[in-house]
Write a structure and sequence with these properties.
This is DNA alkylation repair enzyme. By secondary structure, this protein is α+β, with helices and mostly antiparallel strands. The chain folds into two domains: 5-244, Serine Threonine Protein Phosphatase 5, Tetratricopeptide repeat; 253-359, Immunoglobulins (Immunoglobulin-like), CATH 2.60.40.10. It has 16 helices and eight strands. The strands form two sheets. A five-stranded mixed beta sheet has the order 2-8-7-4-5, with no helix packed on it. A hairpin with a 2-residue loop joins strand 7 (338-346) and strand 8. Helix 2 packs antiparallel against helix 3 (47-61). The longest helix is centred in the first third of the chain and has 15 residues, at 47-61. It is globular and about 80 Å long.
Length: 360
């Protein structure tokens, strides 16, 4: 079984962290810090709670002066990377909101080794105009981690992070950042731009359609951004978005031999379905093939989730498809017993559907 993310913050990590801090602050009390961190509630804390608790421990045992404490952390940070370094910007998020002149350079420094995407958001909420001026400067940085921060940190719906309600209402302040980064040489940055636009599409779909229609004429890298940014709109079957990528209504295509087994799916098992797509023409052409499941929710209503099967040109006049869908428990979805529906979707149009029962 894979190690849980929260368990990366273990005694070995905290010991290494304390040893590194002691190189720059010899009086740092390693044993006291470890005792503080691994208290009676530690095992019950989830990922971000553990990260925040470590920040409190640093505040408890580093020098009282914020500038001095921050300098120590900035010296230690380069020895840590990726996820395990997320604690460093969290310290700034908690204790640095009243020290912008110290905190913003620190967030820029920390993001080079991990990401300050969560930590910048309270600063945006506190003073949006000032922070967006900083974001524009970061968007012009020579470091791709810093450029990504400009986009990722201002996403309206960044997962695991506090929302930015003003940007959900009106994303206009972030659009110059995306325009600046739309042809960035780093795929890491371009992916953030695409995810940012996908966030916007959930509240302002027509705005993203308009941007996509303009950007689709750009470089191959920008075209990739457009495709990835429109993934929610594509799943919604919006005709103008499908047309943007060359998907036409499947007027000469039909579904044949659609089968699902079993009709009753036991909890934790899987359903298998298969079907054929057949065209009256000599080839099926450019296809985006998806399936949707209408999941039963807790109070009997249903909630649809769309899954992609395949996309691309098909030169034959027919093709067979099959898929297994598992109902093993996962952290991102809870299953409820009852009658579910599967629908086959071709180029945004629902072609055929069938029902099966998920059983206790």
């Amino acid at each position: 079984m894979a190690k849980l993310l929260k368990d990366h913050f273990d005694r070995n990590y905290l010991s290494r962290l304390a040893d590194e801090i002691q190189k720059h602050e010899p009086s740092f009390p390693k044993r006291k810090m470890l005792s503080f961190v691994f208290d009676a509630e530690w095992e019950q804390r989830e990922l971000k709670q553990r990260m925040r608790h470590i920040s409190y421990a640093m505040r408890e045992f580093l020098p009282v002066d914020y500038e001095t404490a921050l300098k120590v952390l900035m010296q230690a940070a380069p020895q840590f990377g990726g996820f395990e370094a997320m604690f460093f910007p969290d310290f700034v998020e908690v204790f640095g909101l009243d020290e912008w002149d110290l905190s913003l350079p620190a967030l820029e420094h920390f993001t080079e080794y991990s990401s300050s995407e969560f930590a910048v958001r309270p600063f945006i909420l506190q003073d949006q105009k000032r922070m967006m001026r900083q974001m524009k400067r970061w968007a012009a940085s020579k470091n791709h981690h810093v450029r990504r921060l400009a986009s990722e940190g201002s996403r309206p719906r960044l997962p695991w992070a506090m929302a930015l309600p003003e940007f959900k209402k009106d994303p206009a302040p972030t659009l110059p950042l995306l325009e600046k980064l739309k042809a960035d040489p780093s795929e890491y940055v371009r992916r953030s731009v695409a995810n940012h636009l996908n966030d916007i599409s959930k509240d302002h779909p027509e705005l993203v359609v308009d941007i996509a229609q303009k950007w689709i004429k750009g470089s191959p890298e920008t075209q990739w951004i457009v495709k990835h940014a429109c993934r929610t709109l594509l799943k919604q079957g919006k005709p103008e978005v499908l047309a943007l990528f060359g998907y036409q209504a499947p007027v000469d295509i039909c579904v044949q031999n659609f089968e699902m087994t079993p009709a009753g799916v036991a909890w934790g098992k899987e359903i298998q379905f298969k079907f054929d797509l057949v065209s009256d023409a000599s080839e099926l052409g450019l296809l985006r093939v998806e399936y949707a499941i209408d999941f039963v929710r807790q109070k009997g209503a249903s909630s649809r989730k769309v899954f992609k099967l395949s996309e691309g040109p098909v030169s034959q006049s027919s093709r067979s498809y099959s898929r297994r869908h598992s109902f093993k428990p996962i952290s991102t979805r809870k299953y409820y017993p009852g009658w579910h529906q599967i629908a086959i979707i071709v180029n945004g149009q629902e072609m055929v559907d069938g029902q099966f029962e998920l059983q206790d």
